[in-house]
Specification:
415 residues; alpha/beta; Enolase-like, domain 1; TIM Barrel; 3-stranded antiparallel beta sheet; binds 2-phosphoglyceric acid; binds magnesium ion
Length: 415
């Protein structure tokens, strides 16, 4: 697509779904404004881009103003060259001066402004020739770990995915139905359940992990049978949050269990068998390449997914490729910092046959870019919760894209 340059950049402080401060930018390209507000994680990886300037969000804002003079006039058509320029200006590896939130907001807003200037949707501006396939919605129905209070399970996310869905409409309907059915099941166990939810909109009941597996599994089965759509279970262990370096063990405080790496591997294998899990995110902590490789070798037709271990960083992914650690990767633009870097990560993941899953953050905004990025990176799944305004904004956007494309085929999964 023909070049177009950045005309202005404006930044402000906005709030994310947890009520935490975030950076939003308006970028103007050929008179068209693109706007993006950065999301923020709670279970962040050690190697992610740094969120803000160490002196805080105000210092971050001032730096955006500072950097703008070097960005104005720059070509907005190519996220990768913009990313390179931002890195050069920042002079750091992980955006520790300007902050990853600013890098995110500038790069995503620029891409949106460019798409608007060209009169095409963002996914088409990023992937002009297609093919366009719908990612399967992977939805958090029950929250634990760092996304909920101390009474909820240790495991961070109990996920469902409608693998049998033939369209995004059918898929979203199935996930929402599981979320509703699960509430009924929880209330049967606990008549005083307050309806409390975790950060990503999944229920956050006062139950143990084993019970959570049973309830999510039975709810999915009920919905699967009634809608005639195969629904499978997945888990984000967010193991870096459970790992205790001193005792070299995964500590499940609420469960009352401590598992060595070997025991964790056995535990994960048992869960796969018992609940027919198809998706295992961060089953080990962020340095555990060898354990990831061992588990990947032992399983077939299961996604062993790296989030905190790869942090949307191409060189960390390539180390995984070399060691055969995992077979799938989470893509979070703000982990990388810029959209250009995240797209480079996506290309490498596809090249090495790692299945891509584009993901929200636990603290998110009502922006809809995630859906476009998932399609443009040819992600097979999109992890974006099930309910809640900041989750549904993205899922509803998929419905609009589906309509615009005249009904879009679902991506192909290998499970
Ligand atoms: C994760 C994410 C999103 P956070 O661990 O995958 O679900 O959580 O944004 O808190 O890192
Ligand atoms: Mg994760």
């Amino acid at each position: 697509m023909k070049k177009a340059s950045i005309e202005s950049i404006k930044a402000r402080i906005c709030y994310d779904s947890r009520g935490d401060e975030s950076i939003e930018t308006d970028v103007k390209v050929e008179g068209f404004i693109g706007r993006a507000c950065a999301p923020r994680g709670a279970s962040t990886g050690k190697y992610e881009a740094v969120g803000f300037n160490p002196n805080g969000i105000k210092a971050t804002l001032e730096l955006i103003f500072d950097y703008s003079s070097k960005l104005i006039g720059f070509d907005a058509s190519n996220p990768k060259s913009l990313s390179q320029l931002l890195r050069e200006i920042d002079g750091t590896k992980n955006f520790s001066r300007i902050g990853g939130s600013a890098a995110y907001a500038i790069s995503v807003a620029t891409a949106e402004a460019f798409a608007r200037a060209k009169g095409v949707p963002l996914y088409k501006a990023l992937l002009p020739k297609g093919p366009y396939l719908m990612p399967y919605p992977l939805g958090n129905v029950l929250c634990g770990g760092k996304h909920s209070g101390p009474g909820a399970p240790d495991i961070q996310e109990f996920l469902v995915c409608p693998l049998g869905a033939k369209s995004i409409k059918e898929g979203l309907r199935a996930n929402i139905a599981v979320h509703k059915e699960l509430r009924k099941q929880i209330e049967k166990k606990d008549p005083y359940f307050t309806g409390g939810k975790g950060d990503e909109g999944g229920w956050a009941p006062h139950i143990k992990d084993e019970e959570a597996f049973e309830l999510v599994s039975s709810s999915s089965k009920i919905v699967s049978d009634s809608l005639g759509v195969d629904i499978r279970l997945g888990v984000d262990f967010a193991s870096s949050s459970l790992w205790d370096e001193d005792s070299k063990a995964y500590v499940y405080t609420r469960w009352g269990a401590k598992r060595s790496s070997g025991e964790q591997l056995e535990f994960v294998m048992e869960l796969v068998k018992k609940y027919h899990l198809f998706f295992l995110e961060d089953p080990f902590h962020e340095e555990a390449y060898e354990e990831f490789a061992e588990l990947t070798k032992k399983l077939s037709k299961v996604y062993v997914v790296g989030d905190d271990i790869f942090v949307t960083n191409t060189s960390r992914l390539l180390k995984g490729v070399k060691m055969k650690a995992g077979n799938a990767a989470i893509l979070k633009v703000n982990q990388a910092g810029t959209l250009g870097d995240a797209m480079d990560f996506a290309e490498n993941a596809r090249k090495h046959n790692y299945t891509l899953i584009t993901s929200h953050r636990s603290g998110d905004t009502s922006d809809v870019h995630l859906s476009h990025i998932a399609i443009a990176t040819q992600s097979k799944m999109i992890k974006s919760g099930v309910v809640g305004g900041e989750r549904l904004s993205k899922l509803n956007e998929l419905l609009r894209i589906d309509e615009e494309l005249g009904g879009c085929n679902m991506a192909k999964l290998e499970v």
